[in-house]
Amino acid sequence: MSNADQKVPAICEKCLGSNPYLKMIREPQGDQCRICTSTYNLFKWNANKGSKLSRTLVCLECARQRNCCQSCMFDLTYHIPMSLRDAAFKIAGMGNFHEVLDSPNAVTKRFNAQKQQQKYLEGGQPDQQLLTDGEPEVSEAQARKTLDEILQKLVQSRQASDNSKFNPKKENSHGAESSNNNLKNTDIAKILTKLPFNGNLTLPKNTSITSFFIFGINNEISNGMVAEYIEQKLAEVSENKEIKLKSIILNHRAKCGFICFEKRKVAEKLSNLVDKPRGTKGPGIMFIKNIPIRITWCKVKSLGCSSSEEIKLGYVVRRQMKLLAEKDHKAIGKKANNGDSSSNMETFEPPGPPGSKSNYSSQNGNFES
């Protein structure tokens, strides 16, 4: 069968996919072979629903000569790269009749492909026609056994690596593995142990601590909003000259950050002004643009060195904010049951409609008189 008469490609099971009703598009002489540069019948198919079209890359002659898949160019028998297969033959001391020495000359490549095609058409048993001529240099049983062991180990190691990376629940629209799978393998245990999610605003004994850890921010919160909130809070008890912020660090991907002051006294004043829903049993809370943000004493720590670590830390912050909100509601409920209705929590009421504070004469009871 020549390249022009080819009706079925030489494709491995992995490239074909699991769909038993696979449909293929055949384009006669539709592309050039990546190896010998001759034109061949191009085949396209959709391996999975919603995935990109797979296609053949090499012609049938080159694939038959190397015993490889026309699409992924892996060995058809063991589904490993051809370089690994050829190296296994050399280690076992056997001649590899699939190994082909490619020439850099395009004309020579095409001539070799035509020569192998002619040998295939001239003869050989049906079960030998997929292979090129030649026999192994060494036919000892020990060499064959060694080769089989090496190839099986290569196959097992490749399957193990593929299984560890594959997650069918997180495939993207192209059928490939989603980059979000990296989150599952990302370990942020060391980062979490250094962040005080259950800390409080009790003055730390270490006087060198002049910074706060804040968490629960979103993309709307900016450094300027945080600085404006702090200045408004401290303006009630301090002069503007004393309010000196060293830095504000916000990581929106991790949904947390740090507030650093130059002086410890200013930081202590802020800790006294911030609301404490559960006293010393949990972090404080401040509302910036009606967004609740938790705050606690802490030195500046690392919030992750990669985007996957920061994203996973953001998931932890979101979960921690829900837990703290539930604890605050329970604490407020207990105070209400005990008859303590006083609360120092910040409350925000929406502004009234325009003119709600104006007093018109028509609103008086004796307007007609």
UniProtKB/TrEMBL annotation:
Top-level taxon in the UniProt lineage: Eukaryota
Pfam families cross-referenced by the UniProt entry: STL11_N
Location of region: Disordered: 122-141, 156-182, 328-369
Domain STL11/RBM22-like N-terminal: residue ranges: 9-117
Keyword Plastid belongs to the record: no
Gene Ontology terms for molecular function: pre-mRNA binding; U6 snRNA binding
Polar residues bias spans: 156-166, 356-369
Function: Involved in pre-mRNA splicing. Facilitates the cooperative formation of U2/U6 helix II in association with stem II in the spliceosome. Binds to RNA.
Identification of the protein by name: Pre-mRNA-splicing factor SLT11
